[in-house]
Design a protein that fits this description.
The complex is a heterodimer of chains A (173) and B (98). Chain A is mostly helical and 173 residues long. Chain A contains six helices and three strands. The longest helix of chain A has 36 residues. The two termini of chain A are 36 Å apart. Chain B is mainly β. Chain B has one helix and six strands; from the N terminus they run βββββαβ. In chain B, a hairpin with a 7-residue loop joins strand 3 and strand 4. The chains are: A mainly alpha (173), B mainly beta (98). Strand 1 of chain A pairs parallel with strand 4 of chain B, so a sheet runs across the interface.
Chain lengths: 173, 98
């Protein structure tokens, strides 16, 4: 420990030094596209579940009808929440994490983010699997750029989610 | 006013030049700044807080465009614009590491 540093520290006890912040964005560096990717997979899964529902028919018992309508409501609500969540998570990365030098190195970032916003809204409005898959692909694109800025290689895998769709994951050494 | 005052550094945006716990001795009489200078300034976004950054450029009107050395983890002029002269407290004269 340097003598001058010790003197200054002692001085702090009598009269504390003012703090000069080397300001950073809080929370410092805790970002991950994983949440957005999970949300996009969920949208696909909800569309599949909605497609698999069988209409109970006009003569079926009330219980069956209640179950049918209840499930439609739940799957639809979850689909909409997660499409919005995917947009929200990507917005955080875009607004808080990515810096001008990242955009310079990856000029395709803005387009990928813009696609997530548009397809996320489609994911709420529509019931089409194709558009939900496009949402996931746009989120995966953002994830790839994210990990490139961290110098972490990525690989595309099919996780065991029942969505039969690929996701981009970091390959830690 | 005595020209030299001291500040203790917190946060990481000036790594590896300045680390949390370092002290900087600041010349408050400094009036001319140039690119590369370390400066202490009042936070343009929060009046009560004080920042330490490096001058990356001087605008024609004399304002300082300041950036953290640890650019990817720094909130600086890239977010809040060039800093007018009257918000600059002074230039770092000496830094004191533990």
């Amino acid at each position: 420990m340097s003598v001058l540093h010790r003197i200054l520290r002692t001085l702090d006890r009598v009269h504390p030094a003012r703090i000069a912040h080397a300001h950073c964005d809080i929370p410092c560096g805790i970002y991950d596209p994983h949440h957005a990717q999970l949300a996009a997979h969920t949208v696909i899964r909800m569309i599949d579940l909605l497609g698999q529902l069988e209409h109970p028919g006009p003569d079926s018992p009330l219980e069956k009808k209640k179950e049918f309508h209840g499930k439609i409501a739940r799957y639809t609500a979850t689909k909409e929440q997660h499409a919005e969540l995917a947009k929200h998570e990507v917005r955080i990365l875009w607004g808080d994490y990515f810096k001008p030098e990242h955009v310079q190195a990856h000029p395709e970032l803005h387009d990928a983010v813009w696609k997530v916003m548009k397809l996320g809204s489609k994911g709420r409005q529509e019931f089409a699997r194709k558009e939900a898959e496009e949402l996931l692909e746009a989120v995966n694109k953002v994830a790839e750029i994210f990990w490139k800025t961290k110098n972490v290689p990525t690989v595309r895998v099919k996780p065991p989610y029942n969505t039969n769709a690929e996701t981009v994951v970091p390959k830690y050494a | 006013m005595f020209p030299i005052t001291r500040f203790r550094v917190e946060d990481q945006s000036m790594e590896p030049t300045l680390s949390p716990g370092d002290y900087v001795l600041v010349n408050r009489w400094a009036s001319r700044f140039s690119k590369g200078d370390l400066v202490v300034l009042r936070d343009p976004e929060g009046a009560s807080s004080v920042l330490v950054k490096r001058v990356a450029d001087i605008t024609t009107s004399g304002a300082c465009f300041v950036v953290g050395d640890n650019a990817t983890a720094s909130r600086d002029s890239r977010a809040f614009g060039a800093v007018p002269r009257d918000l600059i407290v002074g230039r770092v004269w000496r830094q004191v590491r533990p």
